[in-house]
Amino acid sequence: METVELFSAEGKGRGLKATKEQWAGDVIFAERAYAAVVFDSLTHLVCHTCFKRHEKLHRCGQCKFAHYCDRTCQKEGWAKHKSECSAVKKQGKAPNENIRLAAQILWRIEREGGGLTEGSLVSIDELQNHVEHFGDEEKKELRVDLESFLEFWPPNSKQFGMQYISHILGVINCNGFTLSDQRGLQAVGVGIFPNLCMVNHDCWPNCSVIFNNGNHEAVRSLFHTQMRIELRALGKISPGEELTVSYVDFLNVGEDRRQQLKKQYYFDCTCQHCQKGIKDDLMLAVKEGGEKPSQETVKEIIQYSKDTLEKIDKARSEGVYHEVVKLCRECLAKQEAILGDTNIYLLRILSILSEVLSYLQHINEAAGCSKRMVDGYVKLYHPNNAQLGMALMRAGVTHWHAGLIEVGHEMLCKAYAVLLVTHGPSHPITKDLEAMRVQSEMELRMFQQNEFMYYKMREAALQNQKIQVMPEPTNEVSPGIFQKKQ
Ligand SMILES: [Zn+2]
Ligand SMILES: [Zn+2]
Ligand SMILES: [Zn+2]
Question: Is-above-0.70 flag for pTM?
Answer without folding.
Answer: yes
